[in-house]
Design brief:
2 domains; two-stranded antiparallel ribbon; about 60% helix; binds zinc ion
Length: about 250
Amino acid sequence: MIYPPQSRAEQRELRRKAGFTSRVSIPNENALRVCSIPGCGKPPQARAGRGLSLTHCRLHIQRRNRHGSFWKGTLSAAALKPYRHAAESYLKANLSDFWVSHALLAIQGLLEGAGPVERVVDLKRMKPDRKARAAFARMRRAGVPPLRLLVDHLAITGAVQEDPIRPGGEPGFYLQTQLGKAALRKASGYHSVYGPDSRYDVYPRSAGQFLRIIGRKLDKACEHVAHRHLEAVLALKAKRVRGANNGVI
Ligand SMILES: [Zn+2]
């Protein structure tokens, strides 16, 4: 097959990628001997010649990319349920609150300002920021109501705050990843139905920097609501859990 001649910019990019690949594939003796997660024992990425990290193995780097923490997984739907229910009831009773309506408008702005819905085949090559905007565009197309995203924000912020196992790492890293993942689940896939027995579904990978960008944008839109109302939502959740344990619903 004959390929069209590459532009200088494309040639530069190809050289940069080739240089990067050869750099990270040479084992680095300056890296730690074993991954810094207790009990892991595997060599860090750089020592194994399979990546950049001088301190963590490939498995733990992947885990952090996917979940936002070297050791914690993603919050389960069951763990979030009581927080979601409390957040939803609380917000529905306080829709006219200044900060709640302000956050709903800010989320609406994120959805409306997200630009076009991109083709799934283009997502892999996109920079994280554009990939994050594409995710908001898909949510807009799917008609995801801003209130659902605000409920998620309060529920996830509350669950992370009350979790006795801390996620470690940079402050906000786990929370932002979890917010991004939950938002992505709202409208993650591309679906084409060709007939009663024929359809095509594609889901972008739920890992990487773009999740944190989605999470950061949502956190910025909703932070005042969390600051002013999270305590009341957590109190409502605790009251309901106590009521359910005593057999009173
Ligand atoms: Zn490890």
